[in-house]
Amino acid sequence: MTAEILIMNNKAVALAADSAVSAMVGTDRKIFTTADKIFVLSPNRPVGVMIYNNVHFLGVPWETLIYEISKRIPESGFDTLDEYIQAFLGYFETEKDRFPKGEQRILLKDHIEFYFSIARELIVRRVDDELKRRPLNDRAIKILVSKVIKDDLDDWAKHEVDE
To answer: N or C: which end of the chain has fewer CB within 10 A?
Structure first.
């Protein structure tokens, strides 16, 4: 379990984190209690990154990734935090080959499984709610399931456009 704290006022920000992280060692998950979780993103500006949970992202240590990203930050820094966020996220867009394909497939599979577990919960809830109101035949259930999936995908597409 990770504990991270940010205390902020109009003059300063303080970051604190415990030192426990998990990492996969072969097929075993190991807990280490000596890990750094707070990193400097910009050497000349007070911008940092805190990590939690796993010490690696797609098989690469977060410490290494954050260091590589920090080398891309101009010495003069950026004017806004949003620019730091865009630089941070942009690294993952431009450096996809940096991450092992097998690790990328595992992450994709995990996301797909997660999405379908949520979709299943939505469908079951909607069908159960509708069955409490009225009886449904197979055709009505198929139509309702299709509508739930379509509505969810429409919401997802709208969210993608808004971002």
So the answer is: C
